[in-house]
Amino acid sequence: MLTTADLPPDDAVPDRCGTCTACLDACPSAAFEGPYALDARRCVAYLTIEHRGPIPDEFHAPIGDWLFGCDVCQEVCPWNRHAPPARQTVPATPPPPPEALVAMTDAEFRERFRGSPLKRARRAGLARNAAIVLGNRRRSAS
Question: What's the pTM?
């Protein structure tokens, strides 16, 4: 909604982080430039879901086995243990193996992921991510 109305600002959110740097330290791609400063261009979640086009080589290793997203910063945050559990913790339609994703056609993708959050990455993005995962597995096996 767009408006020209004068609206009072929300109260400031309290700083609960203090000296904690768990998210900064745990980020696999060093996407945090400092406290409260995330460079989305380095974030594995952004790269594997929203980014269109090739992912720079420097981020292939940090992507590891993630086909879609990354929640490391959320998993290590001590404040998140107080959050209520999510209603759904895994995608309704789990992805097929990376080998199948690389070869999947647009029609197969649309059918398999209809109504799934995995559709946000689009077929080309999920195939790109699968190829990176396969490359990472091959490198770690050798």
Answer: 0.83
